[in-house]
Amino acid sequence: NISNVTVTCVTNNYAVGGTVSGLAGSGLALANNGGAAIPISVNGVGETYVTLASGSAYNITVKTQPTAPSQTCVVANPTGTVTNAAITNVNVTCTTNMYTVGGTITGYTGTGTALVLLDNGTDSLPVTGGAGIFTFATTLINDVPYAVTVQTQPQTPAQYCTVTNGTGTITAANVGDIAISCRN
User: Does residue 129 surpass a pLDDT of 80?
Assistant: First the structure.
């Protein structure tokens, strides 16, 4: 009889990953099952986020969103169980967050020649509807300055409009506190 034959079995490990696209900021970190941060610094195909034993469940989530510029990243196909092959379809797609610049107009009658507002010297906004809320069409990324001015004062009737809170820097939120006050 031969009794010294030893059989040793090990569980195979497989990569869990996919493609990262659209990443322009820094600081993106993923996590598996809420665990330690997995830093991601570049776009790429065939990225490996974590290596797990066959039979292990995975749940890849965004632990930290990128900044500079501010972005929102989402994970497609984030959950599953590793079986007998690498997981290659856990894809991360990032988009740059864009923010609006706007506020309120008071005292403007809105007849005759229009009030024209200007943001950063190039984004023109004619206002013909009188007092109310305004928003520039061009959106801005985080950490970019804005400067709202009056390009054209209303002429019929003649009014003078001033800007309050017209300058600042986008801080990961829409700007809505700019006040335009007009008087005859």
Answer: no
60 vs 38: CA distance, rounded Å: 10
Token reading at 57: 């469940």
* Strand pairing category for 101-106 and 175-183: parallel
What is the pLDDT at residue 113? Answer: 67
The tens digit of pLDDT for each residue in 29-87 reads 999 999 999 999 999 999 999 999 999 999 999 999 999 889 999 999 999 999 999 99
Rounded to whole angstroms, how far apart are CA atoms 77 and 136?
Answer: 36
Looking up tokens 């929102």 gives 72
146-178 tens-digit pLDDT: 999 999 999 878 899 999 999 999 998 999 999
- CB-CB contact of 87 with 15 (8 Å): yes
Q: DSSP for 116-136?
A: EEEETTTEEEEE-S-SEEEE-
CB 16 within 8 A of CB 47: no
In angstroms, the CA 32 to CA 39 distance is 12
Of the candidates 128, 117, 123, the one whose C-alpha atom is nearest the C-alpha of residue 178 is: 117
Read off the pTM. 0.77
Burial of 53 (0-12, 13-18, 19+ CB in 10 A): exposed
Starting from the edge strand earliest in sequence, which strands make up the sheet with 167-169, in order?
A: 123-127, 115-119, 145-152, 167-169
Per-residue tokens: 91: 């894809």
